[in-house]
């Protein structure tokens, strides 16, 4: 199949009639990503970047609604506890990095993928692996005699196979967004088999990302995925346990492209520099990820307070020590205060250094919340 | 779900492939056709020119006819040490344990139509009725368990008698008339079955190792400082990996193991791919020691080699509480046929066995011993020490100067005992089978 035969998208300004629910195309001028959102969400912060505003704009869309949707397995009411677990353990957090703010800003977003159906007809060849067991030994020499322990190992015997394939495949998934892999890296994999047929009620309240990769762009990836499924079936047909070096010379017929929507919650907080830090939650598996930053500004503030207290205690200690010239026991009290001031002064280093050290180690962490 | 769409019209499976069962509708699977060798049907060797029986001729390097000088050279496929080896799969071991699965077999002679009853391990036979040579590889319980490689005879049968005569003539303590050719019966060349084993053995050892060191101490009795050697024991451990290639274990139990092992080595670099032509006119015996039993024997040799390697790894000769674990890996085996000439001879109404390595010409066997020569030599060896010792005894009692001859006599006697014991052992071993 050539890209000329692939289904084309068209500019859509009103999607209610085809998607069965009132959705408005809107785009972010900062990240450039287009969404389908409910009317009340137009003019809100872009969930994709947390920097721009979603302004109305026409979207380039396939005319038909999605075929399948993976349902949110996490309720909105569960989000505070998820965020609480995520922020826990970070000291000197930025003001916005708290469960309440994250919850307030959390937006359910549906991420599109292409689903390809089609017939694959062609000749294939591969090496298939058959498991077999071999007997090995471990011999132990203890107290002057040998003891034998049998060890059974499983190995694969590889044999060439070739053949013909005429099979129909349904719902082979292909990315529809240019940042799909980054998103999946953050939220983890989805179990695509758990999807259900699309219904307008299933997407109520969610922002829908509009595909920025069209079928023509993704045909090669779709072909690879179809071949991968075909390879698995050829392995099964050959009664083998493994397959490698699979190649197929095939025609791909009766292709049908539809969409699958993946559930994600997006939220964000702003760091010291005012940059939004995005938090991602997989709506199916509950994986949560994002940068858990500490505030360097807060660190300096606490370091300053502790240093000031230390200086005050030091000066008081010096004063009391001088008074010791008149009443000797006061010298001891003064020295204790001077010692305390040093402890305060040294402790001030901790809040100054902690955010730097914490943020340096901080990667985009995945935290699984049940 | 399968759909009815025609396959690519011009596609053909590659040469040598055939269709096999598929577990999925809509997918056809083609696999290479397995190599099928006609292992059951015996092959008869007759001369295409005169019809006489042909046999493998060592000097001609092919099958030849003694009557009309017809020769067909063999295009031998040299496999060498890289000849295919097999793993110890559970499947093969299970089949190997069943052996050949029959006691006697019937070989049908295509030449005269007679049915020949042969033993289960005989790979060749000569028809009793028309004297035609037949070669057949037994129907093995597994494709792997039939001979795939052999070392062809390199030593001509007419030279074996000379080699044997020369060998029999060696050694002073054998009867002088032993090298007389009349005592030797004719040699028969036979391919015997052997198993060869390869393995990599990774061993980990642990032992208390004693390290010698000198220490100074004050001897109160002598009133002076002296030096003595002390052993300091320390727990040590180490690891050693050795690889063993082509360890040979005989596959026939009724051939003298002692003599057979004196024929080693066989050079596996000269292994060729099995062809019935090599066996034409020669005897050949299949194995009767099954693979698992032979492997147990091979493993025992290998683990002792690994133990020696561990001991070599220890930096001292003082070792106690030694323990080790040997992990076998990459184990493989081959079933090969190796050439041996067998002969028996009678000497003083006693039958002795003789073998010649058909590849290298090494001779080994039983050799009768002239025991009177041995006893005479032993007497001669012990006599000087005894005499000098006996002479020293009265001198010692009389004047105290006999200590020197007594010591010399004792040393000579001990040396005589050691040499005598060695002589006796050689004599016994020479007659043993």
Task: Note down, in words, how this protein is organized.
The complex is a heterodimer of chains A (370) and B (433). With 370 residues, chain A is of the alpha+beta class. Chain A has two domains: 260 residues, no CATH class; 67 residues. In chain A, the strands form two sheets. In chain A, strands 2, 3, 4, 6, 7, 8, 9, 10, 11, 12, 13 and 14 form a twelve-stranded mixed sheet that branches. A two-stranded antiparallel sheet of chain A has the order 1-5. Chain A contains eight helices and 14 strands. Helix content of chain A is 30%, strand content 37%. The mean pLDDT of chain A is 89. Chain A is flat. In chain B, helix 6 runs antiparallel to helix 7. Chain B starts with 16 loop residues before the first strand and ends with a helix. In chain B, the strands form five sheets. In chain B, strands 11, 12, 13, 14, 15, 16, 17 and 18 form an eight-stranded mixed sheet that branches. Chain B has seven helices and 18 strands. Among the domains of chain B are: 212 residues, no CATH class; 60 residues. The chains are: A alpha+beta (370), B alpha+beta (433). At the A-B interface, strand 7, strand 8, helix 5 and strand 11 of A face strand 2, helix 1, helix 5 and strand 16 of B.
Cα Rg of chain A: 31 Å
Q: Catalogue the unreliable spans of chain B.
A: 1-5, 100-104
Share in β-strands of chain B: 25-35%
Number of strands of chain A: 14
Number of helices of chain A: 8
Biggest pleated-sheet summary of chain A: 12 strands, mixed
Uncertain ranges of chain A = none
Coarse structural class of chain A = alpha+beta
Major sheet description of chain B: 8 strands, mixed
Oligomer: heterodimer
Biggest interface: chains and residue counts?
Answer: A-B, 39 and 43 residues
In one word, what is the shape of chain A?
Answer: flat
How many distinct beta strands of chain B? 18
Broad structural category of chain B? alpha+beta
Number of helices of chain B: 7
Overall number of structural domains of chain A: 2
């Amino acid at each position: 199949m050539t890209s000329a035969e692939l289904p084309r998208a068209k500019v859509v300004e009103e999607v209610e009639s085809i998607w069965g629910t009132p959705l408005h195309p809107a785009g972010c001028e900062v990240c450039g990503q287009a969404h389908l959102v409910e009317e009340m969400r137009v003019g809100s912060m872009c969930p994709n970047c947390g920097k721009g505003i979603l302004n109305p704009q026409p979207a380039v869309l396939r005319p038909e609604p999605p075929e399948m949707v993976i349902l949110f397995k996490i309720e909105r009411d569960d989000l505070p506890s998820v965020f609480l677990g995520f922020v826990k353990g970070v000291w000197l957090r930025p003001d916005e990095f708290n469960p309440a703010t994250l919850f307030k800003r959390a937006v359910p977003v549906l991420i599109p993928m292409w689903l390809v159906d089609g017939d694959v007809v062609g000749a294939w060849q591969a090496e298939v692996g058959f498991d077999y067991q071999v007997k090995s030994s471990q011999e132990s020499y203890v107290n002057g005699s040998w003891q034998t322990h049998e060890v059974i190992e499983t190995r694969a015997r590889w044999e060439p196979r070739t053949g013909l394939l005429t099979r129909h495949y349904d719902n082979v998934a292909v990315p529809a967004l240019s940042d799909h892999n980054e998103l999946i890296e953050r939220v983890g994999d989805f179990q695509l088999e758990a999807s259900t047929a699309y219904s307008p009620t299933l997407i109520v309240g969610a922002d829908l990302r509009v595909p920025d990769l069209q079928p023509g762009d993704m045909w090669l990836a779709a072909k690879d995925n179809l071949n991968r499924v075909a390879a698995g079936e050829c392995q099964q047909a050959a009664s083998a346990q493994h397959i490698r070096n699979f190649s197929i010379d095939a025609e791909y017929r009766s292709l049908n492209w539809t969409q699958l929507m993946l559930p994600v919650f997006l939220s964000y907080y702003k760091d010291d520099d005012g940059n939004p830090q995005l938090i991602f939650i997989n709506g199916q598996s509950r994986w949560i990820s994002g940068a858990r930053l500490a505030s360097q500004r807060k660190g300096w503030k606490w370091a300053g307070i502790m240093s000031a207290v230390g200086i005050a205690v030091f000066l008081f200690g010096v004063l009391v020590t001088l008074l010791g010239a008149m009443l000797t026991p006061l010298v001891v009290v003064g020295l204790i205060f001077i010692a305390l001031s040093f402890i305060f002064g040294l402790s001030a280093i901790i809040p100054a250094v902690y955010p730097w050290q914490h943020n340096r180690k901080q990667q985009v962490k995945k935290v699984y919340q049940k | 779900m399968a759909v009815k769409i025609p396959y690519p019209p011009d596609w053909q499976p590659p040469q040598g492939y055939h269709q096999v069962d598929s577990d999925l509708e809509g997918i056809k699977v083609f696999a290479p056709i397995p190599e099928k060798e006609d292992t059951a049907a015996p092959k008869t060797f007759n001369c295409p020119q005169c019809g006489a029986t042909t046999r493998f001729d060592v000097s001609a390097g092919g099958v030849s006819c003694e009557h009309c000088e017809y020769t067909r050279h063999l295009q031998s496929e040299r496999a060498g040490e890289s000849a295919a080896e097999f793993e110890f799969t559970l499947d093969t071991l299970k089949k190997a344990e069943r052996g050949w699965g029959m006691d006697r077999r019937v070989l049908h002679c295509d030449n005269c139509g007679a049915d020949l009853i042969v033993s289960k391990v005989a790979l060749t036979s000569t028809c009793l009725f028309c004297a035609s040579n037949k070669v057949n590889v037994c129907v093995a319980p597994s494709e792997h368990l039939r001979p795939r490689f052999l070392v062809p005879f390199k030593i001509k049968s007419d030279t074996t008698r000379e080699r044997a005569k020369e060998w029999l003539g060696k050694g002073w303590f054998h009867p002088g008339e032993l090298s007389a050719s009349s005592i030797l019966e004719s040699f028969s060349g036979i391919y015997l079955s052997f198993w060869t084993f390869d393995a990599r053995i990774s061993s980990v050892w642990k032992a208390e190792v004693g390290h010698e060191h000198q220490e100074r101490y004050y001897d109160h009795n002598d009133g002076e400082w002296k030096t003595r050697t002390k052993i300091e024991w320390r727990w040590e451990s180490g690891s050693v990996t050795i690889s063993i290639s082509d360890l040979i274990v005989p596959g026939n139990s009724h051939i003298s193991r002692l003599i057979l092992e004196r024929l080693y080595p066989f050079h596996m670099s000269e292994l060729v791919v099995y062809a019935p032509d090599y066996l034409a006119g020669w005897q050949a015996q299949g194995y009767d020691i099954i693979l698992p039993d032979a492997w147990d024997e091979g493993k025992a040799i290998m683990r002792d080699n690994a133990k020696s390697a561990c001991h070599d790894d220890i930096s001292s000769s003082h070792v106690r509480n030694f323990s080790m674990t040997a992990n076998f890996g990459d184990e493989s085996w081959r079933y090969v046929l190796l050439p041996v000439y067998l002969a028996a001879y009678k000497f003083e109404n006693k039958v002795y066995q003789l073998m010649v390595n058909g590849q290298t010409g090494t001779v080994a066997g039983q050799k009768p011993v002239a025991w009177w020569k041995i006893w005479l030599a032993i007497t001669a060896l012990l006599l000087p020490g005894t005499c000098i010792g006996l002479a020293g005894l009265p001198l010692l009692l009389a004047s105290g100067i006999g200590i020197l001859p007594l010591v010399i006599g004792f040393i000579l006697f001990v040396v005589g005992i050691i040499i005598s014991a060695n002589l006796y052992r050689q004599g016994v071993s020479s007659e043993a089978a």
